[in-house]
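Dear support,

We are seeing what looks like truncated structure output for some complexes. This example has two components. We would appreciate it if you could run it in full and send us the complete token output so we can diff it against ours.
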Amino acid sequence: DAKTTQPTSMDCAEGRAANLPCNHSTISGNEYVYWYRQIHSQGPQYIIHGLKNNETNEMASLIITEDRKSSTLILPHATLRDTAVYYCIVLISSGSARQLTFGSGTQLTVLP
Amino acid sequence: SQTIHQWPATLVQPVGSPLSLECTVEGTSNPNLYWYRQAAGRGLQLLFYSVGIGQISSEVPQNLSASRPQDRQFILSSKKLLLSDSGFYLCAWSVQGLGNQPQHFGDGTRLSIL
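Here is the complete output from our reference environment:
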């Protein structure tokens, strides 16, 4: 599975958009980009995933560059409850069970 | 909608005692099920996964075992706990057969061995 690189930490003002970048320059054609977040002492929470096209759900938007070497997770209106460690993961699609491997992630702090 | 339940939320056990952690999933059938451990300041380590009743794959040799007695029930066990078994244990599920479907996690069990 491709390696990802994320900034260690970011701050965002409450109510503003939070844009979290992720580099995955070695991604292959059949690998998906997944985003999870983990609030301290809780289980990881799935946010969104995509292959090529931009994706949007009730939580966030995922923007994937045309060459697929990087992506950005956008939380459109960050709240204090969005403070968490955000993980970008690249994982090949297959029919079998797969292990998720989290890197260091980005600590997002939403400031009041 | 689908939900996943883990219990207990926290557990303190003496070295050498047995362990049983339970995970159940509701709202879906025949899911893939996973047990992970997350040590403090570290990433996730996959311990076991299951694609069906009675089918368990072990990723890391250790003194832990897993069982899937029912379609949506996954149990993590040990006969004798070690100090190194301390950690945050997470159960997860995913839709079987669709490789790009995400894994969804429970709230975890924080296990402390004394």
